[in-house]
Design a protein that fits this description.
The protein is mainly α. The chain has one domain. The chain is built from 16 helices and no strands. The protein is globular.
Length: 452
Amino acid sequence: MNIIKKETGEAKEILGRFKRRDFSGNEGRAIKNSTWQIATTLVAKIGSLLFTIIIARLMLPEIYGLYGLALSTILLMGVFSDFGISSALMTFMSKTIDKNPAKAKGYLYLLTKYKILLIALSSIILLASAGWLANSYYNKPIYYALLAGAIYLPIVIFSGYLGPIFTAKNDFRPQFTKEIIVQLSRLTIVPLFIIYFLAKVSSVEFYLLWIFIALSLCNFLGGAYLFITAKLKHPFRKTKAQKLNSKEKSELIKFILPLSITALSGIFFGYIDQIMLGHYVEGQFLGFYQAAFNLVASASVIIAFSAAATFPIFARLKGKKLEQGFKKTRNITLLISIAAAIFTFIVAPLLIQFIYGAEYLTAISYLKVLSLLLISFPMISLYTTYYTSQKRTKIISVLLIISTILNIILNYAFINIGLHYSMFHAVMGACIATIISRYVYLAGLVISRKLN
């Protein structure tokens, strides 16, 4: 009750700031950032939800499941394109772009060179493994979709890569506009492609190929906008890039190395359930699982808006002020998360029926179980943001490795146990494995912060 009263008071204070248009100080900046982040997240998630509804209804469970499997596989290959570079760019630019824009530009140039090389590596690996994955491991018609992923992946990565430049300057407006462009494009271009090729193409493989080409075009438009905006706004004040000295490069490498392990573990952690299910169950059951999981993931990102909005603030704070800011954000996030989980569990049948239609009613049971993730997802996002902003990335790396190994073991065990009964139970096994591993990860983050 004390927490609720305290946070109610905080909410009134925030509303008062909006009325007065007072966004001074770190707290005011956090409120302003959060507002833009909420708006961006709402556009992204409402757009994604509408997009999911449309394609899920047009494709029906079987093809929708294959589409989701191809997308998860493509994004899994994207792990080789990051290795912590995006987090490093965000962190080091937030600390230098105001005081030394030339140095911040130096970080951008150096990290971008690494990024291009790694993206090329990701696309090559995807192309080389597409045949084996589609025809041997999955034994499903997604080969051409995976080939299209070699185009889709670089475009998606670069469309969001410039975002940290604006975030580091506490300027969230360009990303908001970019998200509008991407979502409006997806809601118009992709459905038109689906309707056209559904009638023209008899092969599921070619059908999925064109869907990923359309998605590539949509993300390209958003990325082009950010690139042009960065050129026009001159966030580095037209300064020349300052080369990093050996000490700064060493510090950068020390920061990135743990995140490389984090990136590898994190991507497996995020997609291993769908990748393993793709080997064991039919496309329609993949569709049921993805329908439920996507709803939870979309809601979780909306709840976790505070994590992204407070990153540049956390990066600048130390000591008591950092602790106060973190605790306020944590309390608000936790209260909203618990309420969202309870609501989702209760209205799961209505959500599935209304959003996806009668063809997806099997997903109701999965959504009820996965509603527990509405608590863990936002809290994990907040804690990882805190550790990353303070350059304590080793904790994240160790916990992610442990949780990923546990996730793989539990998925393998529970899916195979479920298969003794039916494919429905196999998917339920994946749901349970995912929940256990996520909460183990969250517990580790919480305990580690208390011990340090």
